[in-house]
Amino acid sequence: MEGFDMFEEMTRSIQEDAVRFAFNIAINIQPREHKITNESTDGTRPQKVKKASQQATSQKVGRNDPCPCGSGKKYKQCCGK
Prior knowledge:
81 residues; mainly alpha; 0% strand
């Protein structure tokens, strides 16, 4: 009985500590401002890149071929659904 009482006291203590910790967490959310420009960080203009879905439709991909999106899965398990 004494061991059971000690165990119950320990679990109550852990629960109290967890609640106390959760209420003392301070979350700082700072909005990020992003400017949309036509230049990249090095000052050059970015090249247009085809999306994976456009590449898949422009090239004939077999069901058991690797998916062109780069996931490593077979096409039938990834974008072929």
